[in-house]
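INFO  loader      accepted 1 record
INFO  loader      residues=461
INFO  predictor   begin
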Amino acid sequence: MRLVVAAPHGRSGKSTITLGMIGALQDKKRIKVQPFKKGPDFIDPSWLTWMAGRPCRNLDLFFSEPGHIQDLFDSACTGADMAIVEGAMGLYDGVDVEGSDSTAAIARIIKAPVILVVDSTRMTRSAAALVKGFQDFEAGVTIAGVILNKVARPRHENILRQSIEKYTGIPVIGAVPKQNNILIADRHLGLVTAQEANGLEELKACLTDAAAKYIDLDALIRIAENSPGLPLQYRDRAAAVPARVRIGVIKDKVFSFYYPENLEALRDSGAELVMVDSLLDKKLPEVDALYIGGGFPEIYAEELQENYSLRSDLRRLINTGLPVYAECGGLMYLSRQLFNGDQSYEMVGALPCDTKMYNRPKGHGYSKMKVIRSNYLFPENEVIRGHEFHHSQICNVDTNSLTSIMEVQRGYGFDGKKDGIIYHNVIAVYQHIYAPANPDWAVNFTAKAINFKEQMRRISG
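INFO  predictor   done
INFO  writer      dumping tokens
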């Protein structure tokens, strides 16, 4: 069973409705749901993972071929009864006029029916015209049900429901009224992450109860059951290598932007992963390399600054040659200072540069970076696909010490021209990568950790 939850546009309420559907299906119908998110997102997947109790996976045609997406989808669904994919933006929105990487394209690839969430604010009969346009716009996309959101009153619902069903033949399977008690806090990169939120049990109950009350779960199940089988092309996966090194991963409420596939790729390459908390741990555990993902160091800058012990220990280890890979927020953490408004905060000080926050995004969207200098992670001349979403920029750079290893082909990076710092054995980038699209990354990072471990063993005698 599977379905895609989409909308005519962003901010239609599909995230809260998707979360509620997952909660209600699991709580009321005892159906295990595997969640997915279309596109290169970290924040929505954190909420989907929280609600489903299973790691959310991203489905993204910028990173993966259709056959790989089908196999990733099938593999992730092992042990689940139903798959629910939350779309991104509008159903047909993509990077080009053809919508080649849209939510609709994902729905076609995994052969899933679509539930369209319609924000019904200030609409009645026009909602039918809207749904009719989405129904007829692109061949191969089946809109199998409509959920009305932000319905004002019963009369409003009746006109909406009758109009849509009369003119499109698509059943309205839910009508959710305007609600003020279901709120997930927002910030400059979108919603706060599930790791940071308070009152999670109360929120889960509100979302679950609302979906059970206002959505026809039995109709939802019938729609999801009407899904054909998928052809599988790339099912074979190389066996994992026994762990030979320990790689630390700073993963907490500050740094939480990690694709599950990236962590799995490191394990498959022979690494035991050791989780580190940037706010609570006073020193780095015994590791042979360190991975620092993205997140919100600007929100927790004062607390990061207060943990002087960990910052000092990390700086010392980097100076001895510890291999470190840092993305976006991780780069900011390794810099000397973080400037945010009229405040400045001491960071690790391992990189000879500072970072500064701005009100508007510096980089936002998919990225392509060409590797222009030799390094231990990425082959020279290879084009690395990823994405970026950052409001910060490096500044006060010691140009005599820092070397950029990437040239921007699409995106922004440091300044619209370069990305990727290499300093000692640190490689720090603004670009977030997806390991299956860049298979050399995990293998090479683990190999560097093995090299460092052997080097330290020789030094210690």
